[in-house]
Amino acid sequence: MCWRIESRAQDRTLIMVFNILHPCGVRVRFKAEDALRRPVCPRCRQPIQVSAWQKLCARVGGARSANVQSTGLRANVRSTASPDVVATLSRLARRAWTRGQSGHGSFLFRPSLLLPRDEASRNDAVRALYGYARSCADGLNIPYHVPLVSVTNCSDDAAGRFAVDEDGWTSIEISRDFLDTPRAVWLIMAHELCHHILEMAGLAGRHDRLANERQTDRLMFVCGFGQLAKDGYESTRQVQSAYVRSHLGYLTAAEHRAAFEWVIAARCANQLGGMEDLKPQSLGIADGFEIQSNETQALQKLALHIVDSSARQRLLQYYRGKHPHLSLVDLVQIIVDDYARDRS
Q1: Which of 238, 255, 283 is the last residue of a domain?
Q2: pLDDT higher than threshold 90 for residue 171
Q3: Residues 331 and 271 in one domain
Q4: What is the pTM of this model?
């Protein structure tokens, strides 16, 4: 699984990029609007020859963009998300969120580490992400084993990759091209660990790679990594003597905003923890979403750890006899804790 770098549309405005090989040997990328401003090569500072067709495309594209109204979400405006966004987020959130979540001070993860380039700091950062996801999405089977992070020359323009070797050991690979952009590194790590979570929860799509990558991007918002996704979505890095702007991931800018707003609105509507400093900016975007009762969620959590239904019933009967005054939610938690301890 790899995370590709793709140029995306923002709102409804098409972003057109030209990629031209200059006579001095440098391949230069620039947006179409810059084709009308006499672009120059960043190495030799000589003008770049822009064809008449490219200039025409730039003029037509610019005129079309100027007439398109922004579809960005505004404060206190009733907004809607696409059915695909709502369906995926609802399915993931119902599985991940529970009403008994204690959570952190805020649902959104805000890193305190600056991510130096040393290996130890990156591994500490990944451990922090796994721990945060375990608190904010405790309905999922968040792995306790944290993969090691390595820096590689990822192929096919991949920014990162979650990998499992033949012995079952997991790792997260980060392209060295992004090491100088901490916001991108945080986002890459969050995306790749969400691949791990989906695999462990049995939710990974194996037949449609693109759909699974888009689901992985949306899981970041459900696990509390929405701010990381927003901050790292667009990055600018130097490639040889040129600067390249990249959009990381598989969602458009509009889909990013919709996912962020839907998650905030859905958690506030269900009065979940960690939302004291967060208010929905788009009214109605999560209308109709409701998570299940604590008892139903507790039984689903037990089923994640113990697949056999008859075994679950025997355990529940046994633990009810030992702790007759405890609620079903507390009983399940004891069973899960004992089960995890016995397996470790």
Answers
A1: 283
A2: yes
A3: no
A4: 0.66
